[in-house]
Write a sequence for this structure.
């Protein structure tokens, strides 16, 4: 037996009382849920097809995808939205050629800005790019203790005050892609001024008490002479600063190997010493006096002891240790003269 009834929208449908089955047309179903029939308006297709209107879910109503509800999308009444993946990995894919995946959020002014993006245009089979725009900061730690960013044509690796930056078990290269030691710095620079060179160390403190260190070097070698600093030229050692672990003495060495020398000649030490002018002088910037020569005057007599040029950009310097062989020769000559006088 069948009977005719009406839905809440007034649409008629047929009920089979024997089987309790309801027979309804697609148009009746659509009308019953408040959607327009296929002839016009927005509605959700029953199977396949194209949805022509918005799908609206109220707060706390989940959109569940997968036979076991594996993926859920929900907006909760606390105004937070969630994408929840229950099983397997979660992939966000963009197969469009040379296109990006862009992550945007509010920038504090009520409008959205790009925080970072997966750059499909720059990337290739060998390298993929995650791009942070200018002034976009990658911050690490609950208090943003480590920041990495690019701003005003400069790149920054920024740590907050009193936070250590540790690079464990790594060889760091600056200017080289093949570091050979723990810190390997390489560059091609000219000039000898304060802003030249490959590495510069500066202690900017201006206190007048307590001392102020710039560079500390420690070597715990226990077998006699150990090296603190070794100087090189064209992959050959030219000088070293060593220490003797037995006496705690520091030794300054300049290369003097016989294999580097030829055409050995004698010289007159007293003749050279006699030409060197020495003074007791006062320093212009300090209330202190000293003993020594004027660099440009010594350069005329013994140029090997002097660096720089008179009135040049850099101040001239003197290495008095290079005069030691001359002084030794002078003493030998004086000793010979004394021996002759003793024989008379």
């Amino acid at each position: 037996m069948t009977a005719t009834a009406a839905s809440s929208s007034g649409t008629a449908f047929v009920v089979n009382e024997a089987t309790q089955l309801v027979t309804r047309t697609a148009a009746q179903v659509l009308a019953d849920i408040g959607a327009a029939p296929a002839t016009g308006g927005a509605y959700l297709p029953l199977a396949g097809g194209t949805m022509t209107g918005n799908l609206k879910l109220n707060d706390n109503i989940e959109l569940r995808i997968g036979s076991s509800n594996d993926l859920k999308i929900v907006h909760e009444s606390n105004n937070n939205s969630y994408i929840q993946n229950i099983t397997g990995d979660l992939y966000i894919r963009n197969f469009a050629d040379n296109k990006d995946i862009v992550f945007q959020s509010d920038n504090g002014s009520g409008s959205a800005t790009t925080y970072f993006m997966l750059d499909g245009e720059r990337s290739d089979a060998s390298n993929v790019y995650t791009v942070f725009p200018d002034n976009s900061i990658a911050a690490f730690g609950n208090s943003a203790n480590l920041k990495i960013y690019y701003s005003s044509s400069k790149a920054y690796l920024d740590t907050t005050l009193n936070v250590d930056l540790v690079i464990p078990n790594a060889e760091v290269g600056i200017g080289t892609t093949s570091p050979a030691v723990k810190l390997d710095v390489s560059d091609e620079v000219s000039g000898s001024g304060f802003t030249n060179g490959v590495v510069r160390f500066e202690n900017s403190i201006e206190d007048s008490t307590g001392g102020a260190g710039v560079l500390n070097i420690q070597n715990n070698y226990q077998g006699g002479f150990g090296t603190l600093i070794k100087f090189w030229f064209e992959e050959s050692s030219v000088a070293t600063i060593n220490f003797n672990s037995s006496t705690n003495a520091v030794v300054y060495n300049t290369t003097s190997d016989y294999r580097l020398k030829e055409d050995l000649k004698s010289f007159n030490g007293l003749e050279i010493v006699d030409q060197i002018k020495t003074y007791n002088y006062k320093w212009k910037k300090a209330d202190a006096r000293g003993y020594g020569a004027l660099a440009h005057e010594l350069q005329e007599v013994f140029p090997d002891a002097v660096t720089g040029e008179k009135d040049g950009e850099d101040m001239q310097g003197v290495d008095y240790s290079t005069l030691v062989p001359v002084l030794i020769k002078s003493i030998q000559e004086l000793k010979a003269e004394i021996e002759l006088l003793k024989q008379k």
User: Anything to note?
Assistant: Residues 324-343 form the longest helix (20 residues). The first strand starts at residue 2 and ends at 6. Residues 7-11 have pLDDT under 50 and may be disordered.
